[in-house]
């Protein structure tokens, strides 16, 4: 193209017209990609969470799972598995770096501190090489191991507390082994960690809820009364001069029967419900959001006697197709009322 012809096209605006069209097309493509991501991201996240829950339920059938605090930086989440109020073990979720990138690993540990099972939830390892580290034939080698197990290279024969790495996939093997070690150490530290005085401090979500309900208060943990139902913790709330209320944390079973809903309920000094907040839920996101809507939550405000669902005087209206989730909140509030009444020396009628 001659300089004269290019100059002519610039003057006629054809080049700018092409450029503007390209910019428009690029913008529209970007907009479409953003839309696809917005639509698929929640679905992908839900599937990933479902895979984690499925793994835990497979390791500990029939147990309920509660997320607990963990100081180990390698552990993203740590869950306690309980059956009939007895600890069966723990499940740790970890992310480690393999040869091909991030690997998400779930490690189940028995109450005695030995590995119950390992599952690789996601990875990008090389097919038929590093990917073998995600197969049960390798993962089963960790069963029964304790925190001091070692990883040995083939063809060395492992002893009782050693695991043989995969030949040609040492980095992938080490990544899984490091996840198992971190999980075992985290569980080990639960038993040996000395008291720090932090146990009685409120979590940020709990502090935020209490501040919304009461303003600045002093939360003093008290022992649970004999009759406390699903309550797991209770606090008396004080201003500098007087008792202003109570906070009761409960754990109840909703639609997802393997995972409890953790709820914080606030009561005034007379024992009437102020409100509740869901601290942790494994229900569908839409279910949790519905339980927190005012049209459902306000039904409990001011209650001083147990709530029913039978349509009577003290009944609340359940959300259609969410009856189990709604009843979990009803039980949480009722057990909170029972706990506060016991602390006050009375009984919720």
Write a concise synopsis of the structure shown:
The chain has 349 residues and is of the alpha+beta class. The protein contains 8 helices and 12 strands. The protein has 2 domains: 57-192, no CATH class; 204-343, no CATH class.
Give an account of the 3D structure.
- The structure is a single chain.
- The longest helix has 46 residues, at 14-59.
- Strand 9 and strand 10 (243-253) form a beta hairpin.
- The protein is built from eight helices and twelve strands.
- With 349 residues, the chain is α+β, with helices and mostly antiparallel strands.
- The protein has helices at residues 3-12, 14-59, 136-139, 170-192, 204-214, 285-291, 294-297, 323-343, and strands at residues 64-68, 75-83, 86-97, 102-110, 115-122, 150-152, 162-164, 218-221, 231-238, 243-253, 260-268, 273-280.
- It folds into two domains: 57-192, no CATH class; 204-343, no CATH class.
- The strands form three sheets. Strands 1-2-3-4-5 form a five-stranded antiparallel β-sheet, with helices on both faces. Strands 8-9-10-11-12 form a five-stranded antiparallel β-sheet, sandwiched between helices. A two-stranded parallel sheet has the order 6-7.
- Portion in strands: 25-35%
Strand order of the largest sheet: 1-2-3-4-5
- Helicity, as a percent range: 25-40%
Mean pLDDT: 85
- How far apart the termini lie comes to 93 Å
Low-confidence stretches: 192-200
Number of strands: 12
- Sketch the major β-sheet: 5 strands, antiparallel
- Rg from C-alpha positions? 27 Å
Silhouette: globular
Order of helices and strands: HHEEEEEHEEHHEEEEEHHH
**Individual helix count:** 8
Number of domains: 2
Secondary structure class reads: alpha+beta
């Amino acid at each position: 193209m001659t300089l004269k012809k290019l100059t002519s096209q610039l003057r006629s605006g054809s080049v700018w017209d092409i450029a503007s069209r390209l910019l428009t097309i690029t913008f529209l493509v970007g907009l479409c990609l953003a839309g696809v991501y917005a639509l698929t991201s929640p679905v992908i996240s839900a599937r990933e969470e479902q895979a984690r829950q499925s793994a835990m339920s497979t390791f500990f059938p029939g147990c309920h799972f509660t997320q607990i605090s963990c100081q180990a930086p390698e552990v993203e989440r740590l869950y306690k598995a309980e059956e009939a109020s007895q600890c069966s073990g723990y499940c740790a979720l970890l992310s480690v770096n393999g040869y091909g990138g991030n690997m998400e690993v779930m490690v189940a540990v028995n109450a005695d501190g030995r590995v119950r099972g390992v599952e690789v939830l996601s990875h990008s390892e090389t097919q038929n090489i590093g990917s073998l580290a995600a197969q049960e034939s390798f993962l089963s080698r960790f069963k029964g191991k304790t925190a001091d197990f070692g990883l040995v290279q083939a063809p060395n024969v492992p002893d009782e507390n050693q695991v043989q790495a995969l030949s040609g996939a040492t980095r992938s093997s080490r990544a899984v082994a490091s996840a198992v070690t971190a999980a075992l150490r985290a569980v080990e530290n639960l038993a040996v960690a000395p008291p720090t005085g932090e146990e009685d401090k409120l979590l940020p979500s709990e502090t935020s809820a209490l501040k919304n309900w009461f303003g600045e208060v002093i939360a003093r943990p008290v022992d649970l009364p004999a009759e406390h139902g699903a309550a797991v913790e209770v606090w008396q709330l004080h201003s500098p001069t007087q008792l202003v209320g109570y906070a009761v944390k409960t754990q109840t079973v909703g639609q997802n029967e393997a995972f409890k809903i953790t709820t914080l309920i606030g009561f005034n000094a007379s024992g009437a419900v102020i409100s509740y907040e869901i601290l942790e839920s494994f229900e569908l996101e839409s279910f949790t959001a519905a339980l927190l809507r005012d049209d459902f939550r306000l039904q409990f405000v001011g209650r001083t006697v147990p709530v029913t669902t039978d349509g009577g005087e003290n009944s609340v209206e359940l959300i259609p197709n969410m009856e189990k989730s709604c009843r979990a909140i009803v039980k949480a509030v009722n057990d909170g009322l029972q706990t506060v009444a016991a602390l006050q020396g009375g009984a919720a009628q």
